[in-house]
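> tool_call: predict_assembly(chains=two)
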Amino acid sequence: MSTEKFDLIVIGGGPAGHKAAIQAAKVGKRVLLTDLQQAVGGECVHRGTIPSKTLRETALSLWSTSKLAPKLFESSMAGGVKVESLMRNLDSVRDAHARFMSAQLERNGITRWRGRAKFHSEHEISVRGPELSDRVAYGERILIATGSRPRRPDNIPVDHEHILDSDSILSLIYLPSSLTVIGSGVIACEFATVFAALGVDVTIIDKYERPLAFMDPELIDCFLESFKSMGGTFLPKREIEKVAWDGLSAVETTLESGEVIRSEKMFVAQGRIACVNDLNLEVAGVEVSNRGTVVVDKFCQSSAPHVYAAGDAIGPPALAAASMEQGRRAALHAFDLPAPEESSTLPIGIYTIPEMASVGMSEEQAIAEHGSAVVGRSKFEELARGQICGDVGGMLKLVADPSGKQLLGAHIVGHGATELIHVAQMAIQAGTTIDVFVDSIFNFPTMAEGYRVAAIKIVQARPAQIRRAG
Amino acid sequence: MSPNLDALISGPIGLSIQAQAQSDDLDLPVLPNSATEVLALCNGPDCDARELAFKIERDQSLAGHVLHVSNSAAYAPNEPIVSLSQAVARLGFGTVCEISIAIAVKGKVFNVPGFESTLAGLWRHSAVTGFYAKEIARVLRKNVEGAFLCGLLHEVGKPVALQLLVDAWKEAGVDEKLDAEVATGVMDKFGGILGGTLLSKWDFAPWMQAAVEYCHDADSAGQFREQAMMTGLANRLSNWALGSSDETADDLARLQLVSDLEIYENDFEELLGMKDTILETAKAFQ
């Protein structure tokens, strides 16, 4: 078997692998990209981000319309509506995205092999296709970007029929009338709110006291209130004793508290695990953490200097945007090209309904680091655009340093949060003062006016509202 | 295709079948009301065990068959199931619905006098295909419930084609006995299109119609190519499991279908390993 030589072999064609391959090719390197699937984009395009956001877009439109014109939607949609009818444009969205990514690879002369890759030797990767063909490639540098898969808890029998995970939840033909969601992380909360907005009776069960614990608590309060208003239930601090399909019509969840929750379907989202087990990493001397992720430094370089890893394979934050940047930085560093410093302003966007976004420091972090912080809030109900959109539960919160001059963080829940957050991201990166928001003119009516309202409150609070840590 | 079959298909009998297969007025078998009501009830938002049992009870033949299948080894009841409510409670809405559809289709469609043995074999193959389709869907994280019916019904057009042939044969007043090779050839030629038409008439979803019509030619299934490939692969696995093809497990593993569906070696071996369980479960449908 002949061995083809490449400057870089990328294992996995998701956001991290795709960007790394393009970056390396742009600087004249010979690149091989391997993936299990012929279609480009990884789980992000085919099972994750793109399909779920397509369903969310429909749910959001229906939910918004139901709030603005309630009489049009007097009955619930759940229990019979075809899921595919809510995702009519999925194929075109997915195909367009995959086509665009594929054309990029082609334009940059990147070689693609389909198959399951693993280390054959320190620098060699063997790739076995589904047609049982075997090929071997030599890579001067190798990037692991194999992504992750849903973690399957031992006590929950996921059968992809009644009890589903994030790989199979969108295979549902009909909307169920009720859904139990196990877990309260990003994927759990995103799907929980999408289904609740579509009229499904959703119950989130988790062992923690609050969902999305890494987000600002005030945002989570708004989120929970909105979820409740959609008919959702959050059961915190609950341990699961047993989950079983009752053989008739419901999944029965028995909690250690003695409560029994019955629902037509269950969605299990208790984290994801990196897909690195089958890569034969020991051959290359790549260290794996006890959480099953590849151990890397800030340039995504592993314990084997010629091997890099990026995206979900290295663990949190496991966001598509962060993965792309990691892939790009890894490729630059691998070929001794200057890589930009790691950004300190990674925006977090959570596509729940309502959506949430965050950048920079939380109030607690600011107090811990600066001794105190000045906070300004703008409730969307105070904004004309908020009233027009019917989004009166949203909020924008700015966190400034103790002097009330420097912007340190922003946290938003409500309509357009994931877009609005980039204003704060740019402001923090540029070292913009709070006064710039006060002195700037924002379009009227917009949600962005919230920045000005919150900034004014910080200015007004400067002399009086300086909080001391502890 | 034998010269006899070629001549028949291009002759008056073949043209008559072809015309009927493409005609809007084709008199296709109708599912019994009880079966369509059961299907509607199971897919509806307010499915109630008592109501489901009541609907089945109204059709004595269906009720008897559901109880018979419920008590078979495949569903392994710890104690005999003696009532329909008990059957629904034990097996679930979905399974009772599948059993009801299977029984209705078998009785109504897989029933051409003179060809009992051919159709019994075809039916067994269909049931095994249904269960394999379900497992393929599970591996690929596709809808499991719909996949089963696609597999079960993927040959539903063949007995219809056979019935048309028998009728045309009689009408043409041919003395010669209809031989098995000609019957098989006509079923193969017209089974797909008639299957799709039948499912359309029975109001099955468009993707199910396409999966049945194009399971042997997935490239023609358009946006439903994947569903057609899944049914097509289930069909090949069923033939292998029942020993009705010369394909070995190794041949199957190298099929273009497997590669196109991106089923990798370990998952495919898992599917092959289910053979005995699936054959046992499918027995219940005979």
